[in-house]
UniProtKB/TrEMBL annotation:
Keywords of the record: Membrane, Transmembrane, Transmembrane helix
Organism in which the protein naturally occurs: Erinaceus europaeus
Primary localization: membrane
Protein known as: Chemokine-like factor isoform X7
Membrane topology: Multi-pass membrane protein
Compartment list: Membrane
Domain of life assignment: Eukaryota
Keyword field contains Membrane: yes
MARVEL domain ranges (all copies): 24-144
């Protein structure tokens, strides 16, 4: 029972739905990282099957471990939780170092007359290096379009 002096009920404003970020697995960066993981693991598998020299296996195995670490880091959103490190910079450095190592290992695997599996490992290593460069470029592009921290790009028109 409403009293005579009560205000009529007001309608509530519609709720604003917060736009969810796309999960890492469905982003372009996630696809490139997972392709990079698959190519590196395939290269390592071919090196193991061919009983290639240990440095080939160790370097590709180490890269598989590091790539898997970064994928888990981004999937579990730990990069947002552990903000004491600048993860995109570490990811770019890792991509460039991996590209250099994989190019060296692949060229060393492809130069001498070796078994078919070592050649396949070298070819997949070159493909891994290309994916590493693409991964680093994607992260760099995201940093430049969405800078965070003290450095922010500003337009010349904003200064006036």
């Amino acid at each position: 029972m409403a009293s005579a002096g009560a205000e009529p009920a007001r309608e509530m404003p519609p709720l604003k739905v917060k736009i969810q970020h796309r999960p890492f697995c469905f982003s372009v960066k996630g696809h490139v990282k997972m392709l990079r993981l698959a190519l590196t693991a395939t290269s390592m598998t071919f090196f193991i099957l061919a009983q290639a020299p240990e440095p080939y296996i160790v370097i590709t195995g180490f890269e598989v471990t590091v790539i898997l670490f970064f994928i888990l880091l981004y999937m579990l959103r730990l990069d947002r939780l552990m903000n004491c490190l600048f993860w995109p910079l570490l990811d770019i450095i890792n991509s460039m170092v991996t590209a250099v190592f994989m190019i060296i290992v692949s060229v060393l695997a492809l130069i001498p007359e070796t078994t078919f599996f070592i050649v396949l490992g070298g070819v997949f290593g070159v493909l891994t290096a290309v994916c590493c460069l693409a991964d680093g470029a994607l992260i760099y592009r995201k940093l430049m379009f969405n800078p965070s921290g003290p450095y922010r790009k500003s337009s010349v028109h904003d200064k006036f």
